[in-house]
Amino acid sequence: MGSCDILSVLFGLDFCFVTMGYAQLVIGPAGSGKSTYCSSLYEHCETVGRTMNVVNLDPAAEIFNYPVAMDIRELVSLEDVMEELGLGPNGALMYCMEYLEDSLHDWVDEELENYRDDDYLIFDCPGQIELFTHVPVLKNFVAHLQQKNFNVCVVYLLDSQFITDVTKFISGCMSSLSAMIQLELPHINILSKMDLLQDKSNIDNYLDPEPRTLLAELNEKMGPRYAKLNKALIEMVGEYGMVNFIPLDIRKERSIQYVLSQIDVCIQFGEDADVKIKDEDEDFGDDQ
Amino acid sequence: MDPMESSGEENIVEESHKLVDSLDKLRVSAGSSSSNFKKKPVIIIVVGMAGSGKTSFLHRLVCHTFDANKRGYVLNLDPAVMSLPFGANIDIRDTVKYKEVMKQYNLGPNGGIMTSLNLFATKFDEVVSVIEKRADQLDYVLVDTPGQIEIFTWSASGAIITEAFASTFPTVVTYVVDTPRSTSPITFMSNMLYACSILYKTRLPLVLAFNKTDVADHKFALEWMEDFEVFQAAIQSDNSYTSTLANSLSLSLYEFYRNIRSIGVSAITGAGMDDFFKAIEASADEYMQTYKADLDKRKAEKEQLEEERREKEMEKLRKDMESSQGGTVVLNTGLKDRDAAEKMMVEEEDDDDFKIEEDSDDAIDEDEEDEEMNRFYV
């Protein structure tokens, strides 16, 4: 008998624990460090004693530095699809993801059964941005997770080495927004590979944007015809803080911890689970 | 990682120096010729999401230039494409065998494409020289990019190639839009945001080619770009998506639309070709007026990118040699040398084992580096 059942017998009421799951959807351009992030996070959680399960959603992935809890390649493999259907890598990837979408109610649900109470999943996604912008595959996947009571947050990774000046920074923001707008989820943006960054002095301008300075620099880099657009974008990013980047240096535990804390807040992990009673009697309410 | 014996390490460094030097000698001395900026040909770099019809569109461009007696030159940068409907004057597949690269370096398809592009980027000065020599005989250079857009837009090699062009010829980026798929306002906006990201990354004039107009007319797109209230109304009525984010973004995007040219085209029927080339010409003029001033900066940037890439390669080569314990490293010695396998530097990919440096020379000076970063750490 489950704990819910025992309590029900004891108190003659129908207890039902609300099981929350937590999920991170890790996305970003190819080479941004998604898989490395997942393995670092996994190792970190092992160290601090937190359960963390990594799911591979990239049918083209080859090597893993983390133990894989769920793997899309058990469902469908890119190589097989390419061979059997004669598709190129892009077509095959789309096919695999659409196959995943079709399997939401069987394979996915079956696998998810193993992860319920307070379980934390990290989904390592393929790089291709088309998955978010052009086709609703990942969006539907997320909706399904949410139906299963998972709190989902998007973690968008961008290689910090690319952000060499303000135009690249704006470019990175736009690219992040392009994915966010489709996924409609709380999100965290990470500037990865800070450990590989030679000159860190510059990057601070983008972690803590100072609108006026950035705008001046932007106007200098782009022609005068872009003045109004520059202003609109800097406002969005600098003043309204629509896109905020957090740095990640995987060599440092505290950097990983900081990122994790931010994400925890985003998905409300760690807030005590409420015990809700399925009964007409309203007096019981929260049992804290 | 075990510390290497110092003498062994010295030899390795020496070896890699030699290799980088020989790489240098392979490059045609582009220094003198690329300082002559040419007004022609106009380089048209075609990018777009997988499935948007880039290659078909390029095919149409090739046919059109031929029919209209415009002198075109075709460059294919997609290493994984199986067959092209047009003949390419320069094809990355001649220099780099994608499947071999995958096997040689034990990479997945993405890694294979990325590495193939990297390999080609190291030779790119030669490509530019070839085009420069024929500049007087050419009007347009049509460039087809890899199927996955971000392999070109968010990679060092894509940046190197773009800068190599942009610092020598008027260059225009064409972003191909899958019109039928973009009829959903959110997908449309997502697409436009990505196009905006390309505009800022490349800092080149951008032309939007709304492709597949034979399937779906792009009038709705023009309307949405003209009048953001119409667009906002469209968002409201679509899936009850009531986000203020979308509304604020649509205001910014309005400014974006006014800075780019949009043409409806159909690769299948050939519709829109004349308008497209008019837009290209106008963009090339804009380039000459606005961007040419920027030229020195771009050249410097390109050189900087190259330098960084070479340093990375040195490092990777050193590591590779360490792991193979000084085994033979074979280098491709010509643009079309098909026999020699090339052992080259791989861009850091998702699948790579991330090695954490524990050597004393790479010791992190915590205090110095982290002052600014400390507030981000718990």
From TrEMBL, chain A:
Pfam families membership: ATP_bind_1
Protein name: GPN-loop GTPase 3
Family: Belongs to the GPN-loop GTPase family.
Gene of this entry: LOC108849011
Organism expressing this protein natively: Raphanus sativus
Keyword Ribonucleoprotein applies: no
Secretion signal span: none
Protein keywords: GTP-binding, Hydrolase, Nucleotide-binding
CDD domains in alphabetical order: GPN3
TrEMBL record, chain B:
Keywords: Cytoplasm, GTP-binding, Hydrolase, Nucleotide-binding
Pfam family, one: ATP_bind_1
Any one GO molecular-function label of the UniProt entry: GTPase activity
InterPro entries reported for this sequence: Gpn, Gpn1/Npa3/XAB1, P-loop_NTPase
Top EC class, one word: hydrolase
Region (Disordered): 302-378
Bias-annotated ranges (Basic and acidic residues): 302-322, 335-346
Localization per Swiss-Prot or TrEMBL: Cytoplasm; Nucleus
EC number of the protein: 3.6.5.-
Positions with biased composition (Acidic residues): 347-372
Keyword GTP-binding appears in the UniProt entry: yes
Family to which this protein belongs: Belongs to the GPN-loop GTPase family.
Function of the protein: Small GTPase required for proper nuclear import of RNA polymerase II (RNAPII). May act at an RNAP assembly step prior to nuclear import.
Subunit structure and binding partners: Binds to RNA polymerase II.
UniProt-recorded name of the protein: GPN-loop GTPase
Species assigned in the record: Raphanus sativus
Designated gene of the protein: LOC108841261
